[in-house]
Amino acid sequence: MKLIEGLRNAETITPLHIFIIYNFYKNCQWLAGNLTILVGNAF
Question: Against a cut of 0.85, is the pTM above it?
Fold first, then answer.
């Protein structure tokens, strides 16, 4: 949550912010994909 607050407080979006958001998004996709596979295997 602090990451989001920090981004809201930032006056400009820096390349570092874009990099962090991009990696966070990719990690969420990866986790979602693995959860889908696990659930699929469970059933």
Answer: no
pLDDT tens sequence across 1-43: 576 676 666 667 788 888 998 999 999 899 999 988 888 888 7
- Please report the DSSP string for 2-42 in residue order: HHHHHHHH-SS--HHHHHHHHHHHHHHHHHHHHHHHHHHHH
Q: Which domain holds residue 9?
A: 2-42
Residue partners of 24: CB distance under 8 A and separation at least 6: 3
The token duo for 36 is: 């889908």
